[in-house]
Design a protein that fits this description.
Helix content is about 70%, strand content about 0%. The protein has 8 helices and no strands.
């Protein structure tokens, strides 16, 4: 099919359910980059993120014949990735290897860039210390730009529960990072 790049996720999943590898590859190209970014933010570890996304895509392939389009494909895949990330975080503690820092950059504005990089590292570290559900809500809302309703669907909860998780997560981040952490929201 020449128009396969334009096919909907639903149409592609119907083809994947019949064993169509080309449709599976197209779904992978569409969604793996975003899922890798999500998994990296939730886990804080690129190697683990790649493993999680690979496992999620394997589940897409193996569960395609039983998949029911009750939610958008992206929502279903996001839920798989989030659940796998949370499972992985429960199993093994994460060690921050980035704590060593980086070499000084001689370029103009290197000081500002270094400060921004350090602030980003501190925020990432603080997010990594949040309880799993708060971290997931923060990452999906602010990292992936999902609406509270979409986050609620992914997390299998209500919109009000997501809002509560976000409020508590932001409060914890402000306590961890200091009062000025909320200035950049």
């Amino acid at each position: 099919m020449d128009d396969s790049d334009e096919a909907s996720d639903l149409a592609l999943m119907e083809r994947v359910a019949k064993g169509d590898e080309a449709a599976y590859r197209l779904l992978s190209r569409r969604h793996v980059p975003a899922m890798l970014g999500l998994a990296r933010r939730v886990l804080g570890n690129a190697a683990d993120a790649e493993d999680v996304v690979q496992e999620a895509m394997l589940r897409v392939w193996t569960h395609a014949p039983r998949w029911q389009p009750l939610a958008a494909f992206r929502t279903w895949l996001t839920r798989i990735v989030v659940n796998l990330c949370l499972d992985r975080k429960r199993k093994a503690p994460w060690v921050d290897l980035d704590a060593a820092g980086e070499l000084a950059d001689p370029a103009p504005n290197a000081g500002e860039e270094a400060e921004r990089s350090e602030r980003d590292r501190q925020v990432d570290q603080a997010i990594g210390q949040l309880p799993d559900r708060q971290r997931t809500a923060i990452v999906l809302t602010y990292g992936d730009g999902m609406t509270n309703a979409e986050v609620a669907e992914v997390m299998g909860t209500t919109v009000s529960a997501v809002e509560t998780l976000l409020v508590r997560g932001k409060q914890a981040l402000r306590r961890t990072l200091g009062d000025d952490a909320g200035d950049d929201e």
